[in-house]
Amino acid sequence: MMKKIFYLSILTIFIMNCNSKSASDNLKLQNKEQVQLSKLKTIFVDTDSSSIKWIGKKILSSHEGIINISNGELVMNGNKLESGIIEVDMTSILNTDIENEKYSNKLSNHLKNEDFFNVAEYPTSILTITNSEQINEEKYNFSGDLTIKGITHNIDFYGSVNKEKDLFYSHINLEFDRTKWNIKYNSGQFFEDLGDKLILDNIELNVLIKTK
């Protein structure tokens, strides 16, 4: 009987120590998370100084232009970019490489209609940075969500972040297959015998972000 009481006492002490250690570990983890959260700072994008350059290609030629950023926020941990969200004004999409104003406007308006981005129904696109991997002081690998025409897909891309005084500058480069966002006009995946009218599926975006 005394042996049983002794073993029970030892077991009770062991369980109490384990519970105490577990509670201590949980408290340390909570404190660590609170410290990490306290380092995070949300900063706003200067939309007047930020922009997006787009590049679309055919077999032997290409066109390019710009799109305005309408709103944006970045979450920084010190000088490290943790996450962010960029809202894009699709109604502002323009062609910039065609010198003839008439044909330049024709392409811009075509990009806005139902064949491409249907901006009357979907005036806003969104790029969300959900994860960042810092490669060195400036370079990053990113992953996030790209929403166009109400359709969202995960996307991986890369970029850089620099700081000058109290302002941050970020250059982001990404490429996406437009057909995944239901932009199929003159795509070789869906139409045959297009000849020189075939438009490649991948669209390149070069994003310049400056903070306020």
Could you characterize what this model shows?
This protein has 2 helices and 9 strands; from the N terminus they run αββββαβββββ. It starts with a helix and ends with a strand. The mean pLDDT is 89. It has an 8-stranded antiparallel barrel. With 212 residues, the chain is α+β, with helices and mostly antiparallel strands. The longest helix is centred in the first third of the chain and has 38 residues, at 2-39. The chain is globular and about 75 Å long.
Outline:
By secondary structure, the protein is an alpha+beta fold. The chain folds into 2 domains: 1-40; 45-210, Lipocalin (Beta Barrel), CATH 2.40.128.110.
Structural class: alpha+beta
What share of residues are in beta strands? Answer: over 45%
SSE run: HEEEEHEEEEE
CATH class of the largest domain reads Mainly Beta
Tally of helical runs: 2
Helix content: 10-25%
Oligomer: single chain
The residue ranges in which pLDDT falls below 50 over 5 or more consecutive positions are: none
Mean pLDDT level: 89
What is the molecular shape?
globular
State the separation between the terminal residues, measured CA to CA.
75 Å
Blueprint of the fold:
Blueprint (H helix, E strand, L loop, with lengths): L1 H38 E5 L6 E8 L3 E16 L2 E16 L5 H12 L11 E11 L4 E10 L2 E14 L2 E11 L21 E12 L2
Antiparallel strand pairs: 1-3, 2-3, 2-9, 3-4, 4-5, 5-6, 6-7, 7-8, 8-9
